[in-house]
Amino acid sequence: MTGSAPGIWIAVAQSRDVGRDLLACDAAGRKLVLYRRESGKPVALDDECWHRLLPLSNGRREGDNVVCAYHGLAYGPDGRCVSARLGRPPPAGAKVRSYQAAEWDGLVWVWADGNAAVAPGETAGGAVRIGSAQARLAPECGEHVKGRVPDSKDGSAIMQAELEALFGAYRDAFIERAASAAAFYSEPCVTARAGVVRVHPAQADLAAFFTEVDTRYRQRGYTRFDNVTFAWQGLGANSVLVTIHWVYKDREGSPIWETTFSYNLFKCEGTWKILMQTMHDR
Ligand code: FES
User: Fold this and answer.
1) Cα distance between residue 105 and residue 34, in whole Å
2) pLDDT at residue 156 tops 80
3) In the chain, at which end, N or C, are there fewer CB atoms within 10 A of the end residue's CB?
């Protein structure tokens, strides 16, 4: 990760998602494989076998080592190849990059460059940058929180802040130009509104859909909307369900109408995308 994110701890996964099985994730533009040693300590390696650059995450864990699924090279937590197939000695120089990994605040953190002088949470004065643009680009199993020190009490609060920032940006995009709200959605995407389920096969269709929605809203006098409740629930690595109660307001800020939406989000290539949107009532 040198160059892209030097000298910072990056939260790459929630602790509960890292176990004895291999977990692939993106972090600051790198593909990583995460797992735990027998002792429970997390391990982070480049998810790329030295032999043919194939993903180690397709392999299996054996003790503290990870064994490549393709030709059986096994690597230790420090990234050094410890054996080849059929117990043969490792090829000279066979190694994958390993990263210093630590756990703090319900998250697994990886030091982006070399060895950290301090553990995550032990430094003082830094701040997690959770601006809307950054939060939008940050993957949940990846750089979903970037910075030297988390500024919240726990990982849930960090995630909440990230998702609130995302939906703040979503709301602003919608108010400015409805079509830009479509950028927060993936394709294909499913919307369910007032009992009508609609599949949007392509981004152009999504943009047309939101333009139509925006036109209807504005005809009814809505010029802005705010959320009054916001709840989210993790659905495993890279997936989350967000439920928001929105209040739609007129030019003077008086509420006209309110309703609840749920959004299924998935992290696609480092960006949260909405895969499905459900309107709970009219
Ligand atoms: S690609 Fe991993 S051992 Fe060949």
Assistant:
1) 17
2) no
3) C
Write out the residue range of the structural domain in which residue 50 sits.
9-138
pLDDT tens digits along 106-141: 778 777 655 444 444 443 223 222 222 222 223 333
Phi, psi (degrees; rounded to nearest 5) at 87? 75, 10
Q: Is 251 exposed, middle or buried (0-12, 13-18, 19+ CB in 10 A)?
A: exposed
If asked whether residues 220 and 105 sit together in one domain, one would say no
In a domain, 235, yes or no: yes
pLDDT at position 202 is: 87
From the CB of 51, is ligand 1 less than 6 Å away?
A: yes
- What's the CA-to-centroid distance between 82 and ligand 1, angstroms? 13
What's the 50 CA to ligand 1 centre distance in angstroms? 7
Q: Whose CA is nearest to atom 1 of ligand 1?
A: 52
Total domain count for the chain? 2
71 lines ligand 1 (CB under 6 A): yes
Regarding the beta carbon of 52 and ligand 1, being less than 6 Å apart is answered: yes
Decide: 81 in ligand 1 pocket, CB within 6 A: no
Describe the strand order of the beta sheet including 196-200 as a list of residue ranges: 196-200, 185-193, 271-279, 255-268, 239-249, 224-234
Regarding whether 165 and 99 lie in a shared domain, the answer is: no
